[in-house]
Amino acid sequence: MDREIKNILILCDVFPPAFAPRMGYLCKYLPDYKWNPIVITEYFPQNIYQNLVPPNDVTYINYYWKGNKPNRLKYAFVFLTNLFFDYKTWVVKKKARVQIKKNNISLILACSSCRTFTIAAASQLSRQYKIPFVADLRDIVEQFPQNEHISKSILGLKMVNDFISSIVSKKIIRQRNKSLQNAEVVTSVSPWHVETLSAYNKNVKLIYNGFDADLFIPKTVVNKQFVITYAGRIESQALKDPGLLFEAVRYLHEEKRIDPKRFRIYFYLVDKISEKIVCTLAEKYSISLYVECFKNIQNTEIPEILNNSSILLLLANKSSEIGTPRGIMGTKTFEYLAMQKPVLCVRNDEACIEEMINDAKAGFSANTMEEVVCFIQEKQAEWEQTGYTHQSVNKDFVQQFSRRNQTERFVEIFNSLIEQ
């Protein structure tokens, strides 16, 4: 291997072809900057990001999956031993030591959401082997209202579920904050995250999520239907509430300004929980004729779907105080911006998403049903005249969120640490 090429050990809680592509895209571009990624990650039986070819050296740890379903006995074992004895951290460290002894590792990068076992492992390995450690956090516990990051019901008893969720959340925060003290640099995905995490490490840097510029290319497509499209997950209405949209569509239907043959709302959803929320709300607002749900699709299929859409739907909720969602800016936000289509955010988060949409000149964040109606009718008029919609976004602003630019930000941090 070229002596200039440096090895980076990446410990992450999930890695393509499963969801959460942040580390997958980083590994795609790192070799261009003379960094060789060696990855250790947890296995998930998902196949969403087939376009992201894993690097040559990836270790997938299968704690309990058998096919597409977890083994219930193993799941209970792993949950309990991880809760009381940090089992997952121990396994990751064991796998990582093999790579550290086999390769000349210049840096350790740990990426995670609320599951902090990779960050704990990286912190301990960093101290043991005197290797610089960077922590990258996509999500943190504090951003979710009411322990939404722990969605599993336990024995169907809300009281038991809330009690255990509270214990798990407190442990996650305690373990995370202790580990972050040992990180040379912490990176995260929104200004709110940076501000929050700065209480535990003084060197926190902002690296937004982004879009693949090789994949998300805007095209003009004439469509016989006016289509509003959402792609992703809806964990709960507390996090993402389509209520304003559904209320607006009901109003337009009652006023006979739309009909289901020419006006459609398509949801491309990750799981059955998301589908249940959409279907229940569509029935509540009596607009089921307008709504259609599809199973989650390959990342490579999404650009064509977005290009065939008239409005791209972002779902959020007001972000203003403790107990509301805070700082959530998913990958879809940036993929939408790249497509130069009108973006509608409901409900307005009154925070980072609204600011991003305004800075990009990408669309509108709605607070009321009347605002949603006006936005839809404005874009409908454009579609009726041309057969498609277009948004004149600030291209220079949007381009900074390409995955290659994201990698350059990481590389600047990595290089600065090993040159010290």
SSE layout and pairings?
Elements: E1 6-12, H1 22-29, E2 35-42, E3 58-61, E4 65-66, E5 69-70, H2 72-85, H3 87-102, E6 105-112, H4 117-129, E7 133-137, H5 158-180, E8 185-188, H6 191-197, E9 204-206, E10 226-232, H7 243-254, E11 263-269, H8 272-284, E12 291-295, H9 302-307, E13 311-315, H10 331-338, E14 343-346, H11 352-360, E15 363-365, H12 369-386, H13 395-399, H14 403-418
Parallel strand pairs: 1-2, 1-6, 2-3, 6-7, 7-8, 8-9, 10-11, 10-13, 11-12, 13-14, 14-15
Antiparallel strand pairs: 4-5
Backbone structural class: alpha/beta
Residue runs with pLDDT of under 50 for 5 or more positions: none
Give Rg in angstroms.
22 Å
In whole angstroms, the N-to-C terminal distance is: 23 Å
Give the % helix: 40-55%
Note the total helix count. 14
Relative strand content: 15-25%
Q: Outline, from the CA principal axes?
A: globular
* Major sheet summary line: 7 strands, parallel
Strand/helix succession: EHEEEEHHEHEHEHEEHEHEHEHEHEHHH
